[in-house]
Amino acid sequence: MPVRSRLAVAIGLLVFTFAALGPMARPTLAYTWVWPTTGRITQGYGCTGFSWEPPYGSCRHFHKGIDIASDAWTKIRSASSGVVKYVGWNPYDPVGDQAWIVRIKHDNGLLGLYGHMKAVRVDGARAGDRVKAGQLIGYMGSTGMSTGVHLHFGFFRDGVPKNPRLWITTSFSSSSTAQAALYGTSLDGVETTDTIASDRPTRQPTLKRYPLPA
Questions:
Q1: Torsion over CA of 173, 104, 155 and 72, rounded to 10 degrees?
Q2: Residues near 125 by Cβ (< 8 Å), separated by ≥ 6?
């Protein structure tokens, strides 16, 4: 085989390997999306009649995510692959009424917000860690201005809220049934709340809701 032909074949194989295994392959991971938990949807995304939600766009009241309610300590998992950007008390909430949140920069550029969680840190899901779709990131709670135990789950792009259902296209009911075995209640890879008890807000409100910031 002529030298020029062998060089062309070698370059072609190098490009193929880079595309399959290198950074070019990463965007395909962003197309794996799962519901982050199980339970029942108590409030959807968009315009709502719930008076505690703030105005947004043409809506008098607007919910910037999806609320999913279940039992305390229900597992919360990353909706897709990405890098954890923040774990802790929401700095935008009033002092004493802060929700425990996890923010994940997903591989397709969306910022995932998971709120009102139990105030615990999970091994492998701390700030700076890379997570995959379905990986445990925390547990359902009622921290912050919450009406009860639930997960507030939302996506943002450049600060603009986006409907999670544009990416998570499986039905919630079938998804939760199929993944019920994964979303048990065992506390694997988690710090006890005692280790961070000093970080807890001094009080928890009742029958209030505070819209998580974009």
A1: 40
A2: 78, 84, 87, 102, 131, 135, 136, 137, 138
pLDDT tens readout for residues 96-150: 889 999 999 999 999 999 999 999 999 999 999 999 999 999 999 999 988 899 9
CATH class of the domain whose range is 31-199: mainly beta
Burial grade of 196 (CB within 10 A; 0-12, 13-18, 19 or more): middle
Instruction: Sketch the domain layout of the chain as residue ranges.
Output: 1-30, 31-199
Site of tokens 């809220």: 161
Give this prediction's pTM: 0.69
Which residue from 34, 43, 27 is spatially nearest to 169, judged by alpha carbons? 34
Asked if residues 55 and 49 have their Cβ atoms less than 8 Å apart, the reply is: no
Residue count of the chain, please give it.
214
Query: What tokens does 55 get?
Result: 């105005």
pLDDT digits (tens, 9 = 90+) for 154-186: 999 999 999 999 999 887 764 444 454 444 433
Question: Helices in 68-140 by DSSP H: which ranges?
Answer: none
